[in-house]
Amino acid sequence: MAEEVVVVIREYNPKTDDERVEQVESSCEVGPNGELSLFTDLLGDPICRVRNSPAYLMLVAEMVNKGGDGKEEKKEIVGMIRGCIKTVTCGTKFSRTKFGDSHKQLPVFTKLAYILGLRVSPFRRRMGIGLKLVHRMEEWFGNNGAEYSYIATDDANEPSVSLFTGKCGYTKFRNPSVLVHPVFAHRLTVSNRVTIVKLTPPDAEKLYRGCFSTTEFFPRDIDSVLNNHLNLGTFLALPKGYIWAGSDKFLSDPPENWAVMSVWNCNDVFKLEVKGASKLRKGFAKTTRVLDRAFPFLRLPSLPKVFSPFGLHMLYGLGGSGPLYTRYAKFLFGFAHNLAKECKCGVIATELSSEDPLKLAIPHWKVLSFTDLWCIKRLGEDYSDGSVGDWRKSQPGLSIFVDPREF
């Protein structure tokens, strides 16, 4: 009997798959020879990036070699994919009074699925394994009521873009910017013209639902995000002298200028490491840190230890109002930087719509930052478009709400 090789797509088993999954992850992280590459250490938990979502699944592709003449089967994990599902804002509608008049904007929600962490072993590519993983994940999405699916990738990642837009039916949808800033050895100065208040989760939820529930991608379960142990807090920048008396009072009579920002602790979920750097680059980075630590009063920009494992904080839920709003947000950024320094993070990052005015106000290093590409697919045609229509055809708004659970 001749050998038979088949690829089986099945659910990830944490009891038997961890080591083999990690091997595939490691093989996929190796960058081109002589170039810098970013390695992600999932700290022994392959589903850490979806674990906090309302519903999630991880699948693996296993190549099974069924030997002839009664020989044992040989099994090799050659790929994996993660997916999660949540309910988000996809548009708005106007509420109406009993007289038929428009009253205020209300969010329109949809059940949205997200694909991330698709990996195929470099030695098993061009065999349709990635496509099989995507199709099986989309089947799970559909069985659980998801109406749309989306993915995030680097626009320069041609194989990924080609797979999703060319073979899987996705279309390019949004181009948010990922802004990354190193955490210096010195603290950043926060203006004494503002007061920064840490909100309780209930107050933060009221503020976000009251001000941002109509923002695209706003998660309907924002309370779960804010009460998660990885959420380090929601911080509000207010004019000096403003007395905080709770979200109800704030929403009914807000100050002219204010800004809000939440901080998510990715440091306890995964670590990053830049590999492939020359001794010269490593030496230069070390010199900047030594000088920054020795002369903090000079406020010299310095590179953190990115050539060894480092953690990050993600800033999300950025927003505010008033002519000084972007300046207040910059003050909050300084506060978040100092918090990340206390937690020994290497960088802080945020993701904003390409149309967001904060994109120019939030400090970041261009060499570390990049443009993301979000592609979307409609999973079925058997539901009503309602007041929004086909979300894929909508125009981008000024802002998006990036869920930290998927960063």
TrEMBL record:
<keyword id="KW-0012">Acyltransferase</keyword>
<dbReference type="InterPro" id="IPR000182">
    <property type="entry name" value="GNAT_dom"/>
</dbReference>
<dbReference type="InterPro" id="IPR052810">
    <property type="entry name" value="Plant_NAT"/>
</dbReference>
<dbReference type="Pfam" id="PF00583">
    <property type="entry name" value="Acetyltransf_1"/>
</dbReference>
<comment type="similarity">
    <text>Belongs to the acetyltransferase family.</text>
</comment>
<keyword id="KW-0808">Transferase</keyword>
<dbReference type="GO" id="GO:0016747">
    <property type="term" value="F:acyltransferase activity, transferring groups other than amino-acyl groups"/>
</dbReference>
<dbReference type="InterPro" id="IPR016181">
    <property type="entry name" value="Acyl_CoA_acyltransferase"/>
</dbReference>
<protein>
    <recommendedName>
        <fullName>N-acetyltransferase domain-containing protein</fullName>
    </recommendedName>
</protein>
<feature type="domain" description="N-acetyltransferase">
    <location>
        <begin position="7"/>
        <end position="189"/>
    </location>
</feature>
